[in-house]
Structures are given as C-alpha cells and as structure tokens.
Amino acid sequence: MDDSSPLARLDRRVTGCRACPRLVEWREEVARTKRAAFADWTYWGRPVPGFGPADARLLIIGLAPAAHGGNRTGRMFTGDRSGDVLYQALYDLGLANRPTSVHIDDGLELYGVRVTSPVHCAPPANKPTPGERDTCRPWLVQELGLLRPTLRAAVVLGAFGWQAALPAFTEAGWTVPRPRPAFGHGTRVALDGLDLFGCFHVSQRNTFTGKLTPEMLREVLGTAARTAGLPVS
C-alpha cells in the first residue's frame, strides 16, 4: 500500500492512540514482561492497524490483537494460532501469497482482502469492555469510509465483533436493518452494495473443539470473496 494514501495515514494515526488507559497499561506491560518463548523479541506494544490493500473488496473484522500475537508482531492475526488458521484459509482460497503469518516483514501479501478489528489494542483476558469498544469505533468508521469505494463484502469473526461492527457500518453510511440482525455462523445480511457475513471466531477455543473447522471457515470466506468479485481457488 502506498505510504502516502489516506488509509496508510490512518493506520499511522491508529498506532499512536492512547485513549483507553487500561488497554495502554496492559499492552505495554505485556511488551515489557514478554512470554518466555519470545524473550528475544522486541514487542510492538502499541495499537495494531489494519492490514491489506487500500482497494480491498473484502474486509475481515476480528476482535482485538492477541497479547503475544499482534501485540508482539505489530500486524493483525500475526504470530498466534488464530492467525495460522485464518491465513491458511486465505492461502487455500488463493487470497494470500503464503499460508503463514509470522512477523511483519515475512513478505505476506493479501489479494483484494484487508483484515482489521473493532478494538486495536490487546485487552486483558481477550475481553475489551463495551466502553473500550465504543471508544475505538471511530477508527473502524474511518477505515470503512476509506474502503467504501471498492468494498463489496465483509466477514465478521465472532459475536463481539458483530456487535461492534454493525454500529460502525451505520456510522460509515450503510443502512443496517432494524432491529439489528443477530450474529450466527453463516449469517448473511445485505447492506447498501455490500454483503455482511457472520463467522465463528478463529480462536483456539473454537478451532480446537471443532466448533469452527477449516472447511467451515473456507466456506464462509469463499462465499464472501466470490460475492465481492474476487477470484477464488
């Protein structure tokens, strides 16, 4: 992505945010203490911006960076098992150039796909508060506004992300049905020129128990990608 593009400038602004004291304290504490397996890493320890091209046709919306994943590496779904599952699926569908996402300079590229989250800082116990979610929402609203000219589909991972994303789509100018549609795996909602899909989150809890299988994930991502007009393997 062009470093001078409006989306690249937004990403840089995101990384400097200190709006939520609890999240700032937690992300920086994790970056100082580290996990033993990553003792030789210099942790990112800041808000993690979205990742992917500025003309993406498909957006994947997660929850928040993992303490020792995105908070360590500085890239969404990078350096943890959730990312292993997500990027393997994108690679299988021909939407990524490699099946793994290890660190920010590993050469990973996404084709027509961008990955973001409604909360950009790693939260304690992977649970942002409703107030933190709402404080972070303007970043997602701005991101959606910049992507709107090309965006044709979005996949939201998990119920928390769904609850956070729907108001953001409304604030970014899309008409969301009332009452708001409930989250469910495979749920599909037509907005103005965009289809919104629900998918179980790629968390270890879901993937280890079989609540979300690789086949289930590929099915939702593949349907969304085809809806967005992307070529799928």
From TrEMBL:
Sorted UniProt keywords: 4Fe-4S, DNA damage, DNA repair, Hydrolase, Iron, Iron-sulfur, Metal-binding
InterPro entries in alphabetical order: UDG_Type-4/5 (IPR051536), UdgB-like (IPR044147), Uracil-DNA_glycosylase-like (IPR005122), Uracil-DNA_glycosylase-like_sf (IPR036895)
GO biological process, one term: base-excision repair
Presence of keyword DNA repair: yes
Gene3D superfamilies, per database record: Uracil-DNA glycosylase-like domain (3.40.470.10)
One protein family per Pfam: UDG
Gene Ontology MF terms in the entry: 4 iron, 4 sulfur cluster binding; DNA-deoxyinosine glycosylase activity; metal ion binding; uracil DNA N-glycosylase activity
Residues of the Uracil-DNA glycosylase-like domain: 49-221
Domain of life: Bacteria
Keyword Flavoprotein appears in the UniProt entry: no
Coiled coil ranges: none
Family from the record: Belongs to the uracil-DNA glycosylase (UDG) superfamily. Type 5 (UDGb) family.
Protein name, per record: Type-5 uracil-DNA glycosylase
Organism: Streptomyces griseofuscus
